[in-house]
Amino acid sequence: MRESEPAIQRGAETMPADDTQREARLGNADRDLVALGIAAAAIILFVATGSSVLPSAIDAIFSNGSGPDHLLVNALLLNVVLIIFGWRRYRELQDEISERRRAEGLARELAEIDPLTGCLNRRSMAAATTALRLRAQAHGSAVAYCMIDLDNFKQINDMHGHSVGDAVLVELAQRIRRQLPKDAHLARLGGDEFAVITTHDTSNRDRVDDLVIRLYEQVSLPFELNGVTIDPTVSIGVSSDHDEQNTAPVSAAAEEAADALMHRADIAMYTAKKQGKNRYFWFEATMENELRFRNELEAGIRRGLTNGEFVPFYEQQVDVQSGELVGFEMLARWRSTDMGIVSPEIFIPIAEEIGLITQLSDQLMDQALVDARDWDDVLTLSINISPIQLRDPWFAQKLLKSLVKHNFPAQRLEVEITESCLHENIGLVRSIITSLRNQGVRISLDDFGTGYSSLEQLRTLPFDRLKIDRSFVSELNEPGGNSKIVDAIVSLGRGLNLPITAEGIEDEEILTALKAMGKLKGQGYLYGKPESAQDVRARLAKAGMLAADSNVDMPLQSDAQKPESAPEISALDHRKVAGQ
Ligand code: C2E
Ligand code: MG
Ligand code: MG
To answer: Which end of the chain is more exposed for a tag (fewer CB within 10 A), N or C?
Structure first.
C-alpha cells in the first residue's frame, strides 16, 4: 500500500536532520567496535596465555612437572570470563538495537499515518508532495493536488453518531485508494478532508480530470451502514504546479511550493462548496479575491454581532382584497461600519456556516419582539428561521421562553420555514412545529415551489400557510397577467385548506391578477420596501396603529447608531466589492 510507506519512499533528501543523526548513531552501535574489540583482545590473550599454560599443565599431569605459573592460570581464567562477557554484551546490544529500531519505526509510522484510514497524514503528505514534485520535475512532468472534502459530514455524525462517521471515512478512503494510479499518494488531512497528489503531463491535464471523474463515480455510490443508507458526495478542488492560466506558477522553494499547491487546491475546493457542493473546480487566481472577501465578511460578522450591528427591518403584509395592513415580516439587515447596509442573502449563509446563526437570530428576535410589542394587537410579526436552528431539539422551548420574557402573545407570531428545512431530521422538525403550534404560534412554508417539499409533507406537516415565492408571482405582470404556477399553488392551498401569501407584489398588474384569485395575503415593493423599526413606528403612529400604552416618541434600541443613507449591498454587488 503506497501510503503506508512514507519512510521508505521519502529517501534521504526529505528525512529530517535529527532522524538522520539518530540513524547514524544506531548504525555505529550496530557494529559496536568496543564490545567486539574487548572480545577479540580477550581471545588473543587467551591464545597467548593458553599456549604457555596448557603445555605446562599437560606436562604437570603426565610428567610430574612443576605445573603452570599461578599468575598465568589466573590470567587465562580472566580471559575466559572476558570472552564470555564481551560476547554476551555484544549480543545484548544487538537485541537492544533491533528492538529500538522496531519501536522507532512504529513511532514514525504513527507520526506519519492516519490511524483511522491508514492514509498519510498532513505532515507526511507535505513531505510526499515535495518528493513527488522533485521526481516529477526530473522527468519533465507536473504534479496535481486534489483536495477532497466530504459534503455534509457533520450531519452524518450528528444524525448517526461518530462510529458511523468513522466508518464513512474509512469507506471513502478505500474507494479513493482503489482509483489511484501507481505514482499517487492519498492523505487524510483531518476531519473529512482528504488529499490526493499525482503526476500529469505538463501539456495535458486530462489525466487528472479523468481521475477526478472516476473518483466521483465511485465515491458517490450509496452504501449501507448499521441499517442506514449513506449517499456520500464530495467537493473537490484541484491545482497543478504547471498551470499556465494562472499568473504565478508554483515555483518557489520546494516546501513552500508544496504548501502553495495545497493552498490553491483548498481555495478551489472551497469554491466548489460555495457553488453548491458535489462538484469540482480547478484553481483560478480570481478565487483568491473571493476568499479574501469572504474572510473579511466572517470577521465583520463576528465584530458586528458584538457591536449590535444586526438590526431587524420590517416589510408590510397586506390583505390583497382590502389593502388593509395585517402585519410585518422581519427581515435582517447588517448595518456594517465598513460596507453600509448588507443584505441577509450575503450574511445569513455565512453566519450559518460559521455557527453564529443562532446567536444572530436570537439578537434579532429579541429586538423584533420589543419593537412589535408596541404595535397594534391585530398586527402579526413573521420571523424567518434557518434550517440549522431547527436542528436544535430545544428550539421551540427557547422561542416560547423569549415570548414569555417579552410578554409577546404567541398568537401574533408567525414562524417562516423554507422547504430546505424539510431535508433535515423530519421527525425533529415535526415535533418542533407541533410544540410551537400547541402554544398558538403559526407556521408558514416560505418560498414555496423553489425547493423539493413533497405533497406528502404538505399533507402531514401541520403548516398554517403557504408563501408563494416571488419568482412565480412576478410572472403575473407578463402580458395576459396569468401564471399557471401561481394558479396551481392557489388551488393547492385551497384544496389543503392552507391560506396563501403572495410575495413580490411589485406593481398594479400583479395586484390586479392576484385580486382575481380570491382571499390572499400579499407583500411586495408596491406596498413598500422593508423599513427600519423607527420608520415602521412612524407609519403606525400616523395610522393610529400603535398600542395604546406605547410611547410614540420613545427612541428605539435598534435604531441607536444608524447610517440611514448608507446604500444597501445586495448579493450581486458583493462581487464588485470583491473586485470581480
Ligand atoms: P424571504 O423570507 O423570502 O423574504 C422576502 C425577500 O424578498 C426579502 O429579501 C424582501 O426584501 C424581498 N422582497 C419583498 N418584496 C419584494 C418585491 O416586491 N420585489 C423584490 N425584488 N423583492 C422583494 P431580503 O430581505 O433580502 O431577504 C432575503 C432572504 O433572506 C429572505 O427571504 C429570508 O429567506 C432570508 N432572511 C432574511 N432575514 C432573515 C433572518 O432573520 N433569519 C433567517 N434565517 N433568514 C432571513
Ligand atoms: Mg420569509
Ligand atoms: Mg420568501
So the answer is: N
Rounded Cα distance, 472 and 502, in Å: 9
Q: 180's torsion region: left (phi>0), alpha (psi -120 to 50) or beta?
A: beta
Written in H, E and C, the secondary structure of 2-33 is HHHCHHHHHCHHHCCHHHHHHHHHHHHHHCCH
Give the closest residue to 473 by CA, choosing from 453, 493, 487.
487
Name the packing angle between helices 33-63 and 70-112 (round to 10°).
150
Query: Which residue among 317, 330, 331 is best mutated to probe the pocket of ligand 1, counting the most ligand atoms within 8 A of its Cβ?
Result: 331
User: Residue 447: CB within 6 Å of ligand 1?
Assistant: yes
Distance 474 CA to ligand 1 centre (A): 15
Report residue 259: phi and psi, to 5°: -65, -45
Half-sphere exposure of 226 (CA within 13 A, CB side): 11
Q: Is the CB of 504 under 6 A from ligand 1?
A: yes
Taking the C-alpha atoms of residue 354 and residue 356, their distance in angstroms, rounded to an integer, is 6
Contacting residues for 504 by C-beta, under 8 A, at least 6 apart: 469, 470, 471, 473, 474, 510, 523, 524, 525
Please report the pLDDT score of residue 78 as a whole number.
85
pTM of the model: 0.67
Which ligand 1 atom lies nearest to the CA of residue 385?
Answer: 44
pLDDT digits over 291-302, tens only?
A: 888 899 999 999
Ligand 1 atom closest to Cα of residue 357: 44
Residues with CB under 5 A from ligand 3 (ion): 446-447, 503
* Shortest-distance atom of ligand 1 to CA 352: 44
Distance, C-alpha 320 to centroid of its chain: 44
pLDDT (0 to 100) of residue 318? 98
Query: Ligand 2: distance of its center to the CA of 455 in Å?
Result: 21
In 354-454, which residue ranges form alpha helices assigned H by DSSP? 357-373, 395-405, 426-438
Ligand 1, atom 2, residue with closest C-alpha: 384
| Residue type at 245 in one-letter notation | Q
Distance 416 CA to ligand 2 centre (A): 6
Q: Which has the minimum average pLDDT: 118-122, 153-157, 373-377, 497-501?
A: 153-157
- Ligand 3 centroid to 431 CA: how many Å? 23
User: Across-strand partners of 540?
Assistant: none
Mean pLDDT of 236-246: 84
Judge residue 315's burial from the number of C-beta atoms within 10 Å of its C-beta, 0-12 exposed, 13-18 middle, 19 or more buried. Answer: buried
Average pLDDT over every residue of 100-109: 83
Give the nearest ligand 1 atom to 389 CA: 44
The finding on whether 312 has its CB within 6 A of some atom of ligand 1 is no
| Residue 75 CA to ligand 1 centre (angstroms) | 102
